[in-house]
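Following up on my earlier thread - several people asked me to post the actual chain instead of describing it. Fair enough. Here it is, all 210 residues.
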Amino acid sequence: MLSVVVLISGGGSNLRALLDAAADAEFPARVVAVGTDRPEAEGLEHAEEFGVPTFEVALSSFGSREAWGDALLEQIQLWRPDLVILSGFMRLLPPAVVAALAPNLINTHPAFLPEFPGPRAVRDALEAGASESGASIIVVDNGVDTGPIIARERVAVVPGDNETTLHARIKPVERRLLIQAVLDIANGTLDLADAALSGRRAITPEESRP
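Reply from S.P.:
Thanks for posting it. Predicted structure:
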């Protein structure tokens, strides 16, 4: 059974989907703890509903990002997770934290990486006039959404889209990709160490179109 710690900063819709999936006794992973950098993160309510322990490590409580990272890492390691998921976690982890958790550290992103990295991905796609955006799952490295891509899928931008409507269509894809990635990791069909070493990136049906 794969043990998972999820880090969130906001509503936790991906977390909720993962908790729902893990409620099935045959799902090969369990969320053992949920952490946040914001005590007001709405997603903590999902963890509480499912009886999953939570922890908070706020950056404002520390004198440096490195000290914050050390405290965050200590909280994560208390749970001895096999996998850590950044899901709407809006802080860049210090290199020491990435090094300690890698390669078993993945991130969800609402764009078809390497297009539109960063925290404004949906808005950036619209402002660029893109006809497509997407969702991606990556292995975390020290860059901003620059790690090896393990899954991604296109989502069309439709006339009249705004940030809210486009993001609403991306989220279900992001959730599905995340749950499948966790399944693949738990079942051994996706090796994160191999992905990190090879810089592997997923080839999707969209990319293989003639």
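The radius of gyration is 17 Å. That should answer part of your original question.
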